[in-house]
Amino acid sequence: MNGIMEQFNDEELLEILGQNRIDNALEKALLVCERYKETKDKASALLNYALKLDMNEEQRKAIDKVISAYNLCASEYGRAAYFQGLHDGIRLVNEIRQVSAANK
Question: For each successive 10 residues of the chain (104 residues), what is the average pLDDT?
Answer without folding.
Answer: 61 80 82 92 90 89 90 89 86 86 85
